């Protein structure tokens, strides 16, 4: 039987906790079957910061239940805030948050490392002597569940000279397509402002790492000093990163980024830069990797990462 999503969502804030709990159960069941609650993700994120711990807990619960529908990576944008509730001031809320984390990790394995790190670093000394063992046990159980989550087997290596031509494909895949918009024709990468990223690749200050899955290239991150949208100066390489769609949201992009930042540091570069459209969810990923906004236009950020 179909339920009224909006009515049940509003009941999450009902002063009668029994009424609110029934609404939560109805929405949880709906999340198991469809993505109809996913459109409330921003409101659910706001619920995490409410003074009422019951409302916080309901928000945390439904965010986790929507993880499997998170094609827009909205959870990636709020995961740091979510993980703070591992040590929520209310231990009941903290325990529920901890128990929900395996659900998020299973649906979004690219967040597995962040989740495990937060659980391992959790300071549970804030709780009473009677509560600490319970929270500790919850953490141990969740860590055990999360460790079962299988991540895609891949390796990161330097690109080979005979593979340079594939950068054209990754350049095309790197083009941000706003929701509801159709992909442009592939010929768009022939435009001079895009060719600057790949033309005659292999010169000094050109570096590229690729991710390989079962012998197939899945993604690439590359840098060169060029006069592109993210240009800072003639000492700062600009960075581009891209994955084929079927390999996104698996943690491969994050691993590529970290590997490139380490490579640049080892090579003696002081910083790297990139440009990204403000509407692109990747902004939050770049911030987590260490990039900060250095300049902005109406539609784009120019970001820099100190190495």
- Helix count? 12
Provide the spatial order of strands within the biggest beta sheet.
Answer: 1-2-3-4
Low-confidence stretches: none
CATH topology of the largest domain: Aminopeptidase
Distance between the termini: 55 Å
Overall average residue pLDDT: 93
N-to-C SSE string, H for helix and E for strand: HHHHHHHHEHHEEEHEHEE
CATH class bucket of the largest domain? Alpha Beta
Taking the sheet with the most strands, its summary is:
4 strands, antiparallel
Bin the strand percentage.
5-15%
Tell me briefly what this model is.
With 307 residues, this protein is an alpha+beta fold. The protein has helices spanning 5-11, 17-33, 41-47, 53-65, 74-83, 91-107, 112-121, 132-147, 167-173, 192-195, 252-266, 282-289; strands at residues 155-158, 207-213, 216-224, 238-243, 271-277, 292-296, 300-306. It contains twelve helices and seven strands.
């Amino acid at each position: 039987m179909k339920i009224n999503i909006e009515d049940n969502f509003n009941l999450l804030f009902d002063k009668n906790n029994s009424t609110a709990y029934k609404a939560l159960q109805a929405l949880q069941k709906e999340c198991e079957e469809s993505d109809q609650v996913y459109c409330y993700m921003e409101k659910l994120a706001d619920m995490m910061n409410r003074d009422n711990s019951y409302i916080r807990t309901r928000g945390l619960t439904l965010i986790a239940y929507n993880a499997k529908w998170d094609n827009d990576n909205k959870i990636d944008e709020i995961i740091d805030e979510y993980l703070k509730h591992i040590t929520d001031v209310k231990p009941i809320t903290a325990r529920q948050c901890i128990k929900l984390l395996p659900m998020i990790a299973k649906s979004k394995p690219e967040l597995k490392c962040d989740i495990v790190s937060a659980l391992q670093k959790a300071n549970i000394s804030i709780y009473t002597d009677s509560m600490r063992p319970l929270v500790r046990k919850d953490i141990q159980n969740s860590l055990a569940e999360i460790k079962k989550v299988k991540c895609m087997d891949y390796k990161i290596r330097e690109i080979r000279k005979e593979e340079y031509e594939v950068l054209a494909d990754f350049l095309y895949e790197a083009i941000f397509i706003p929701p509801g918009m159709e992909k442009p024709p592939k010929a768009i990468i022939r435009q001079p402002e895009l060719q600057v990223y790949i033309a005659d690749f292999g010169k000094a200050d050109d570096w590229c790492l690729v991710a390989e899955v079962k012998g197939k290239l899945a993604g690439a991150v590359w840098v060169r000093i060029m006069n592109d949208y993210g240009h800072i100066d003639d000492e700062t390489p600009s960075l581009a990163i891209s994955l084929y769609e079927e390999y996104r949201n698996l943690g491969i992009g994050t691993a590529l980024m970290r590997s490139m930042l380490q490579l640049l540091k080892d090579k003696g570069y002081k910083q790297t830069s990139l440009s990204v459209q403000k509407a692109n969810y990747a902004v939050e990923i770049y911030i987590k990797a260490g990039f900060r906004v250095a300049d902005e236009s109406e539609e784009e950020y120019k970001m820099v990462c100190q190495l």
